[in-house]
Amino acid sequence: MTYDLFIGDRTFSSWSLRGWLMFEKFDLPVNTTRVGLYSGTLKEDLEPLAPARFVPVMRSPDGTVVGDTLAMAETLHERHPDAGLWPKDPSARALARWLVAEMHSGFGALRDDCPMQLLGTVADFVVSDEVKTDLARIEELWSLARTRHGEDGPWLFGTYSLADVFFAPVAARIAGFGLSVSLEAQAYVDLHLHDLAFRRWRALGLTISYDPVPYIEGRTLTDWPGPTPRPTTPCGGLSINTTCPYSGDPVTDFLEMDGRVWGFCNPTCRDKTVNDPEAWPAFLQMVVAHTG
Hints:
Helix content is about 45%, strand content about 10%. It has helices at about 15-25, 40-45, 70-80, 90-105, 110-115, 130-150, 160-175, 185-195, 195-205, 265-275, 280-290; strands at about 5, 30-35, 55-60, 65, 120, 220, 235, 255, 260-265.
C-alpha cells in the first residue's frame, strides 16, 4: 500500500527533502504532491490534511496524517521496523536519534544565514562566528558517529540511516554557500552531492524557475559543486524510443545526448533528464537497451 507525501519546492524546502528521502532511500511506496509553498496557496492546499500547517506532511495508507519530519521518521520506523531506517545496534541507534534530535531543533545560525538552495554556490559569502560555531558542532557530531559506528560503510553509521536523511539538507547548505569544513566533513558532504537520490531531487527541482528567487535574489552564484551533468540539450525531431522511459506514454518532448535523440512524455520528464541524465536509472537503462 502507498503513502501520500506533500512537499514544498525541491530547490529550497530542506524539510521536504528530509521527508522525501525517508521514502526514497528505504524503498517505501509513495505518491508525491507539491503544494504551494511560494505561490501563496499553502494553507488552502493543506486544508484536507488538518491540522498540518507546514511541509512535509504524509498520509498513511490507512488515512493517518502525520506532519513534522521527526514524527514522520518515528512513525515510519514503527510501521516498517525491517526497513533499516535506524541503525540496528542499540548504541548506534541511540546516538543516531540524538544527532537527529539536535539537528531538528538546533543550528539556528546556519539555518538563518544559509538557507538551503540547490541552484549553485553563493559567491563571496561571509561566514559569521555563529555559523562557524554551528559548523564546529556539526563536524564534532559527524566525526563521533563515524568513529564509533561508521566501520561498515561511508555514511554516518556505516549504512544509510535517518541520521543521513536529516543531515542531507545540512550538506546542501554547506555546498550552497561554499562553507569551509574539514576534509572528513567535506567527504561526507560530497557523498550526499553524489548520491543518486539527492541528484534526482535536485534535477527535478531545477525544472522550475523563480522570479524573484527565494532567499538569494540578487546574489551571485557559481557552479553547483556536485557532479558535472553529462551534456544534453532539448531538441526537436524523431527519437530512437517511442515511449517515455518513466511513464511508458507516447513521446512528445525530446533531448539530444551524444548525437542521439531521446523522447519523453512531457517537458518535465525531458527537463529533469537534461538537468542530470545519469541520475535517472530508467533513462540510462533505456539508452543501454537501444545502443548497447
